[in-house]
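Thread title: Can someone regenerate the structure for this chain?

I was given the following input by a collaborator and told the matching structure tokens would be attached. They weren't. Posting the sequence so someone can regenerate them.
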Amino acid sequence: MSRRVLAVVVAACMPWAAAAFTARLDDSLSPRPQVVAPQVLSEHGRPLDDMLGDAVPQYGISRFGRVEYRLATAPYVGKRARIYYVVPAPVQGLRSPAGLRMTWRGNGMFADGSARGGERRLVWSGVVRDPVMRESLDLTMEVRLSELMLRPQGGLSVESYFEIEVTR
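Best answer:
Regenerated them for you:
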């Protein structure tokens, strides 16, 4: 094999060799495995069913409050990694994932941020030190009401999750 062909083969394989390993993190140790929205308010701060005479609301907003997560990171202890908050693209009850936006505020290790359906956002980067990472997020969900497509016995259902990307 000539040096030129060998160089092309090696260059083609390098992106895979340098690629990071990504996996969904197990959060089953978390106290509240499923987050349920309390009251849904309009962008005007009033309950949706109390909007008589007001402008027609465009958005429904649910504030979940502080949600505690316990992420099983034991397989990654001692490794450099990045953790992402993921909002899935298929959102039951919505015509389009673009009709949803999750916003969070970290209470310790994780960065604040927001993401629409189908997006993931970096919330932490560093060396994993503990077999379980504990963090609380103040979560808010905003839904564009024109995107709702609710079915009987099937409300809006979103299961956000965390992914870890090991970089070394």
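The radius of gyration is 20 Å.
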